[in-house]
Amino acid sequence: MCPERDILSAYVDGEVPSPWDRAIADHVAGCESCRSVTERLEHTRRTLRADDPFDWQGARERVRLRIATRVAAPIPVFVRPTIWRRQVSIPLPVAVLAAGLVIALGITLATSLTRSNFGMVRITKAPAGTEIQIAAPISDLESLLAKMGGDSSQESVLTLPKNVRLVPVGEPRMGLEGDFSGKKP
Amino acid sequence: MIRPKAAVLPLLLALGAMQASAQDADIDPKEALRQLLSNALKVTISAEILPTTDKPVWNAESTNLTLPGRSIKVRLEGDNVRIYLICTPYVQDDGVVLLLAQGQVWLSDPPDKESKYYSTFYSIPVTFGKKVLFFPLGVSDSDTAKDNKDFFNIELQIKIEPAAQKQ
What stretch of H or E contains B156? Predict the structure, then answer.
């Protein structure tokens, strides 16, 4: 009975321990089929060992040459304009004054921007809309509207004459003047 | 040691702040009022007791300035009637005014001491200067009014015009 191909492969690689390697050698010597198999395996093994498909030595040499080239090249250096590297001396009181000015103006700017946002009155309605921009704080709006024409939230009261008794003749009606021509009460 | 750039920065900020402060100082109440008035509407509401004969029974008028979207309120008080009229004009893109008008009428009839309440709401497109009529107590034929000597009704006229006449 012939050994399996895996056992023959292990035998060719010298991985079968004694005394089994001896028994396989005796069998291979007398078996044409197994000898053919071991010869093919041996041929493959020799071929793999003989040919090195990658040129490690050449690749190593190329990498070393590339690194050497990079190291030898000059590194670009950013040179700042000389005007910003100049330093001038300012007396300490002036520097303190400038710093205080920066802080004060920053506060003023922030305040003015805030007031500008709230000082703009924008009224928008669509489609029958009106947009009005007024250069005044919203806190002044009521007084402005009052100056414009009184407080419109208040009712205007018209007092009807005494001893005139009004009689209804139907439900309230409203329309353009032309709609009631000839139908006035 | 202070760099020139750092020294210039406060000066630029100072100029900016002075500009902002100057703008604040430019706020003029008269200018703001003029801006409001340029968009304001004059709403005139006239009331008249009918029928009109040679001598008017009674009439009155109320004129208010308002902005588009702000309502005008008028109340008429009589012995047996309370009439509330709320007018809100909106100016459309084509210049036509859309008048939203709400009316409430309270009417009492002395013989039976009961009150009637009517409410009405209208949305009427109207051009500047054209009159809108409101009859809170209804409309009847002219013949009826002539036949009844004791007949009195009331008519309200609403007229909307720009507050500032365009040059």
Answer: strand B153-162
